[in-house]
Amino acid sequence: MTSSETIVEARLVQTPPPGILKRAQNSRIAILAVLFLMTGFLGIPLLWMNPNFSRTERWTWAIVVTIYTCILIAFTCGVVYWSLNSIRSNL
Q1: Are the C-beta atoms of 41 and 65 separated by less than 8 Å?
Q2: What is the reported pLDDT for 72?
Q3: Which residues does the chain have with pLDDT short of 50?
């Protein structure tokens, strides 16, 4: 062995069991709940990181959630528009 060579000792480390956040991130139900109940299309990265969904399921859910979110945004805009017209008509 020359002076530039060193001995590297490797040890196997037992990985700790996944925490509750990791289990939730890999749960199909938790991801769908986040997509539909909380963040809309902002949760799509969570969907793509989840190994429990196939590529087809990921694309399908991403499209469904995007359409669902756009409908909710359009509904909210409609309510705001209706509210403004109601306020203006009462002034």
Answers
A1: yes
A2: 92
A3: none
Given CA atoms 78, 83, 85, 86 in this order, what sign does their dihedral have?
positive
Count of residues in the chain: 91
Contact predicate 25/53, CB 8 Å: no
- What is d(CA 48, CA 51) in angstroms, rounded to the nearest whole number? 8
Please give the distance of CA 69 from its chain centroid, rounded to a whole number. 13
SS percent in the chain: helix, strand, coil, step 5: 70, 0, 30
Tokens (6 digits) for 4: 């530039």
Write down the pLDDT at residue 82. 96
